[in-house]
Specification:
The protein is α+β, with helices and mostly antiparallel strands. It has a single domain, classed as Outer membrane efflux proteins (OEP) (Up-down Bundle). It contains 10 helices and 8 strands. Helix 5 runs antiparallel to helix 8. The radius of gyration is 39 Å and the shape is elongated. The two termini are about 50 Å apart.
């Protein structure tokens, strides 16, 4: 049933497409500019909010660790009933029923290991914040790539529409010649076939554009598809200059701006602090405890009100090697993180080199592609003019139309490659988003 409904809907849509002008087929969508799209993605995308929960969790762990600095207070009530009261010489030493109200206040006066844990928890907040920044960059890059994809698909749609208009003009000319008795049915069929093929390309390009717009709406957490505005500048020249790569290709100061490098550096520092604090596991600990008590009714040897103050210290002497093994495991974690950072730095340098090469290559290719598109369009104009004076057949015209479409398609794809390469270079240098 669902399939039949979908087929019926497709038939109705096809009928509407055949009778509605092309300009009326495309709905008017809300449009955002590049900076606005990035800002909206960072503020509304659920992935950023999910990553931010890591910061909240780290802050909660810090609050939990800070309890070592604060006293703990507890209260209790106890009722004791004996089979009978106790006493001698007419004096009651232990009443048959007795209520005890007690209070306990305890505070650590010496807890080096637990105090160190509070500082370690504070380090994890910074790590969580940097991990959130890393997710923010990923969301921003996804939004930027989708924004550029919308621009590319829109320009490809423009190219196919221009090709369709050219094919329709050629078909109209062939029909007029046939009606005037100077043309042939074969020329008309060839021109009509070219129009039909271009109509298929236009529909495919229109659908691809709609998919890109829907994807942009999803990444922006919008209610529906969103259209992209003007092409962003993506100035990589200034970024390369700020990174110092124009003067020294081996410069690495830019690497400190990358969120992944920042996060891993903070993780190493935090893990190294844990290793350094391992010695505090051997430090003595001290606890202060105050226990006031109220007893009713009081006994002969039990006053109604009393209190007890206790100060205790403990010093670890021998634990069978457990603390030494724990420190070794912590050092292994530091070494593993350091190796991970080295690997990330190697990859980062490779990404920058590849991105720079991609920008230069795409720019050269774009110049050649645009020149080829201009030449193909000039060939089309000349071929059409020659055909109109009867010096050639429409086969050459159709071939010129296909060549012009192919050349403009390649130019459009190369433009997108150049835009994506510039974005990749900005990301590799840690300068997107800013």
């Amino acid at each position: 049933m669902l399939r039949r409904n979908l087929v019926a809907a497709a038939v109705i849509l096809a009928v509407c497409v055949s009778v509605v002008p092309a300009a009326a087929q495309d709905p008017v969508l809300p449009k955002v500019e590049f900076d606005e799209a990035i800002a909206q993605a960072l503020s509304k995308n659920p992935s950023v909010a999910t990553a931010a929960t890591g910061i909240v969790r780290a802050e909660a762990l810090l609050q939990q660790a800070r309890t070592v600095y604060r006293p703990t207070v507890g209260a209790g009530v106890t009722n004791t009933t004996l089979d009978r009261e106790r006493g001698f010489s007419g004096q009651v030493s232990q009443p048959q029923n007795q209520m005890t109200f007690s209070l306990n206040a305890t505070m650590n006066v010496l807890a080096p290991a637990r105090w160190a844990a509070a500082n370690q928890a504070r380090d994890q907040i910074e790590v969580a914040r940097m991990a959130t920044d890393e997710v923010r960059q990923q969301v921003a890059v996804a939004a930027a790539q989708t924004f550029l994809a919308v621009i590319a698909q829109r320009r490809f749609l423009d190219v196919t529409i221009r090709s369709l208009e050219s094919a329709r003009a050629h078909l109209k000319y062939a029909q007029n010649r046939l009606e005037a008795g100077a043309g042939s049915r074969l020329n008309e069929l060839r021109a009509n076939q070219s129009v039909s093929s271009d109509e298929v390309r236009v529909e495919s390009a229109r659908l691809a554009l709609r998919r890109a717009q829907e994807a942009l709406g999803v990444i922006l957490a919008a209610e529906g598809p969103v259209d992209a505005g003007a092409e962003p500048p993506l100035d990589v020249t200034a970024a390369v200059r700020e990174a110092g790569l124009d003067q020294n290709p081996a410069a690495t100061a830019w690497m400190a701006l990358r969120p992944d490098v920042k996060r891993q550096t903070l993780q190493i520092d935090a893990a190294q602090r844990v290793v350094s604090d391992s010695r505090k596991d051997w430090y003595p600990t001290g606890v202060l405890s105050l226990d006031p008590q109220y007893l009713t009714p009081a006994g002969l040897f039990q006053p109604a009100r009393s209190w007890r103050l206790t100060v205790s210290f403990a010093q670890p002497i021998f634990d069978g090697g457990e603390r030494r093994a724990t420190r070794a495991l912590r050092q292994v974690s530091v070494d593993a993180l350091a190796l991970g950072l080295t690997s990330t730095q190697i990859v980062a340098r490779a990404e920058v080199r590849v991105a720079q090469a991609a920008v230069d290559s795409a720019q050269r290719a774009l110049i050649a592609a645009r020149r080829a598109a201009e030449q193909a369009n000039e060939v089309l104009r000349i071929t059409t003019a020659v055909f109109e004076v009867g010096a050639t057949t429409n086969i050459e015209v159709i071939d010129a139309q296909r060549s012009a479409l192919d050349a403009e398609t390649v130019a459009t794809q190369t433009e997108d490659t150049w835009r994506q390469a510039r974005l990749e270079l900005l990301v590799a240098l840690g300068r997107f988003p800013r």
